[in-house]
Design brief:
The complex is a heterodimer of chains A (292) and B (295). Helix content of chain A is 75%, strand content 1%. With 292 residues, chain A is mainly alpha-helical. Classes of the chains: A mainly alpha (292), B mainly alpha (295).
Chain lengths: 292, 295
């Protein structure tokens, strides 16, 4: 009897070790995949990076030269997207966190936000094309692309902002209201400032998302190639993600421009992951220095 | 304006802002219908959805998107088969087993993976994975279902893992304590207590991961190969719906039949992802984990 029990125990622990090994394996595969991709891009891209690459426009039908117009275009589009997404998203989150009571309407709004978050990026591209480019006659432009990207990142910003607002303790609001301060003043003077780091983190993640998206700007903002820099928000721009796609699939000489492609990928990855890292660091810092 | 009316006024202004997500959703539906519906004057809904031929530039053109729908589903299913075990196991590792320091690192890894632009992953699939597949399996092209599924899986893992992790984390501590008190090992506790209790959350995670994979554009555009035919093996090329839209929209004349057909394909894609999202939402609400009271 004792013997049997010992062997079952042994089997149960063996089972556990096998399972834990499997789990560790899964975690390792994911880490190696990310590490491998990033390392590969760095190794192959670093030789293309130079001051000229970042500050000069492409030459010789994009087979030589730099990617400055694409970097600038991505910055314009991202700034545009965040200036549309952030105010709308934060205002929306304020209602959901500070005013809303449970009910059918709120439930509907939340389902709407979830569904918007799930809309495929290419559908956003179609929407931008039909609505901003054609219906509003904006043409393929920075403005049309920014509006499309702004709505794309809206759910990210609403989610992060709402969480940040909700993490501000109730007592802060109660103390303010007890002093006779009105509700909206409490929101603007007490709740918002305390939620700001969280909102910031969310918007940084939104910026990262907007900078890396390709499909939404393909038909709404991105130019295959423009030799001139944009003069106004109604001009087309080059953009890093679209530039990568173009060079890798439709360039004049795909194999020959590989170094430029790797270089462009490295710049985009550095930009986007750099933005994400900033968000992660800010959040870690916030957690450590929490005042409540 | 007295203080009370002002407060109410402000409240309604914020309410209008809260509606913005729904308004955008409505604008998307409006745009898709406006530009997509005209195709159905020429092609019946049945012929569009189940037609086997997608030759939009032939004369006469054929607008049957069935091969595109099949392409989308195949890469999504294979991607899910890869991403679910990896994503869920990683979530279990993070929430139940990993020491604090490794947990933080792995969470950052998954977050960075989620942040990697899709065009970068597509590029990686094209220049790294495709040649490897082509050489190892001696194929005419490395741009095929296997390649696209692997890359899509990488994109779905962060979604699946982070939502599953939340669900596992929400399982009440008493459940674990009760299980340990009965003499169960950690593995038995995870497999028979924690995981079943978190199952609705994990299901939601899988649904959202699938929605992410089926709607993903750049990856399938760059690595799925682009053949609009029903595949016969997992090494065949396919042309999922997003790839078709992204590749063809640029060279389509404005308001041509082809243009309307691409918008109609967008409608199909939109409603598919909407369905996935609504199912996910339904599952997470219907079988909500509300602490110990659920069992």
């Amino acid at each position: 009897m004792h013997q049997i029990q010992a062997s079952t125990m042994k089997w149960r622990y063996l089972q556990q070790s096998l399972f834990f090994a499997l789990i560790r394996g899964a975690a390792l595969i994911i880490t190696l995949a990310l590490g491998g991709i990033i390392l590969y891009i760095i190794i192959h891209g670093i030789s293309a990076i130079s001051w000229d690459f970042i500050t000069k426009p492409p030459t010789h039908s994009m087979t030589q030269g730099g990617i400055m117009p694409a970097i600038l275009g991505t910055i314009y589009l991202t700034v545009g997207a965040i200036s549309i997404g952030l105010p709308l998203g934060v205002a929306s989150a304020i209602y959901l966190s500070e005013y809303a009571r449970q009910g059918r309407m709120i439930r509907l709004i939340r389902v709407g936000i979830n569904c918007l978050a799930g809309v495929p990026s290419v559908v956003f591209g179609l929407f931008g094309l039909a609505f901003f480019v054609i219906f509003f006659g904006l043409g393929s432009s920075i403005l049309a692309g920014s509006l499309t990207l702004g709505f794309l990142i809206l759910p990210t910003i609403i989610g992060a902002s709402e969480e940040a607002l909700k993490s501000v303790p109730k007592t802060f609001r109660e103390a303010s209201l007890a002093l006779g301060v009105s509700k909206w003043q409490t929101i603007f003077r007490i709740v918002l400032p305390n939620a700001l780091p969280g909102i910031l983190t969310g918007s940084i993640l939104g910026i990262g998302r907007a900078a890396g998206e390709t499909a939404p700007i393909m038909f709404t903002a991105a130019a295959f190639f423009t030799s001139k820099l944009p003069n106004s928000v109604f001009d087309e721009v080059m953009a890093l993600p679209y530039h990568i796609y173009v060079l890798a699939t439709a360039g004049t000489n795909i194999e020959e421009t590989r170094p430029i492609q790797y270089g462009t990928v490295l710049v985009l990855v550095t930009l986007v992951l750099g933005i994400n890292m900033i968000a992660i660091i800010i959040r870690a810092y916030m957690r450590r220095n929490k005042r409540w | 304006m007295n203080r009370k009316t002002k407060e109410i006024f402000i409240k309604y202004i914020f309410f209008l802002f809260a509606l913005v997500a729904i308004i955008v959703l409505a604008m998307i539906v409006f745009s898709l219908f406006r530009e997509g519906m005209p195709i159905f004057k020429q092609v019946s809904v049945k012929d569009f959805l189940f037609g086997m031929e997608w030759y939009p530039t032939y004369d006469p053109p054929y607008f049957g998107i069935f091969p595109l729908i099949v392409g989308s589903f195949i890469v999504t299913i294979f991607a899910t088969l890869i991403a679910v075990p990896l994503g869920v196991l990683a979530a279990i590792y993070i929430s139940e087993i990993a020491p604090r320091s490794i947990k933080e690192i792995l969470k950052s890894v998954i977050e960075l993976l989620a942040g990697l632009p899709s065009v970068v992953l597509g590029f990686f699939g094209m220049v790294v994975i495709a040649p490897v597949l082509q050489n190892v399996f001696d194929l005419p092209t490395g741009l095929n279902i296997v390649n696209a599924s692997m890359i899509l899986a990488l994109m779905a893992i962060p979604t699946i893992s982070s939502i599953s992790e939340d669900a596992l984390y929400a399982v009440p501590q008493e459940f674990k304590e009760a299980s340990y008190a009965l003499g169960a090992t950690k593995f038995e506790t995870i497999a028979k207590v924690i995981f079943p209790a978190a199952l609705s959350g994990v299901t939601t995670a899988v649904m959202l991961g699938m929605a992410r994979a089926i709607g993903e554009t750049m990856v399938v555009l760059m690595v799925a190969g682009g053949a609009a035919a029903i595949p016969e093996s997992i090494f065949d090329s396919v042309r999922p719906m997003p790839a078709s839209i992204a590749a063809e929209m640029g060279e389509t004349p404005y308001r041509s039949l082809h243009y309307h057909a691409l918008f109609a394909t967008g409608m199909v894609l939109f409603f598919l992802t909407l369905a996935f999202n609504l199912i996910a939402d339904y599952v997470s609400n219907k079988f909500k984990q509300t602490g110990s009271a659920t069992l």
